[in-house]
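Q: Hi! First time doing this. I have a protein sequence and I read that you can turn it into a structure. Is that right? Here it is:
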Amino acid sequence: MPHAAALDLAALKADYDRDGFLSGIPLLTAEEAAEHRATLESAEAKVGPLHYCTKVHTILRSPLALATMPRALDIVEALIGPDILLYNVTYIIKEAGAESFVSWHQDLTYWGFSHDDQVTLWLALSTATAESGCMRMVPGSHTAGVMPHEVEERGSNVLLQGQTVRNIDEAASVLCPLRPGEASFHHGWTLHASLPNVSADRRIGLNIQYVAPHMRQTKHDLDTAILVRGQDRYRHFGSDVPATADLDPAALTRRKELDDHYVSIAGRA
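A: Yes, that's right. Below is the predicted 3D structure, encoded as structure tokens:
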């Protein structure tokens, strides 16, 4: 991305260690983001909604390309080290005027990982503002470790279990608005949430999760990932098959099985 400023990775690492997140990091131009949005919406026209579908990088080349951008991986390497597994890629979409929201939670609470060397990249493919329901983060909350979560009926809550941390000091949170092509990165213990989209456009984000290879899944032995940088000396995960074409029928069938495995992890305590 020749137009993007060089990254001060040491400064980003210091900010991330202090706050538990980074925001407003340019990864794409607005035009590039629009092209990737068009690819998503073309796929939706063929196979239906792709919101919250696990492992979309195994059925579409666009999310795979975004998840493996060198600029993004440089930041991930600064945050979790030189050996990087791509664990999951998911579109998270709030339709215009929809009531869907995300309650205050920590990602790692229900993921079953043995360690917390994990980071999530959230890439805006449309404008994410307070009006459209951009993310809110609580700076420094990742240092507290796991917090008690209540499980409730999902309703309009996007989360699989409606998991919620109560009694959050809302005044301590900050909004993380993003322009198309900008990204945030957050730690798995960072408290975050988002409100409904009351704007006139869809709020489209690509959620990308990376883990260090020494991590392992404690709930079952079916978890999968792709090595995208460095080495995997541990082999704790099976191997996902990256998309080499869009919407290949065999890949679509395989992705549904992977989705069932993910729900069996994230959908229960």
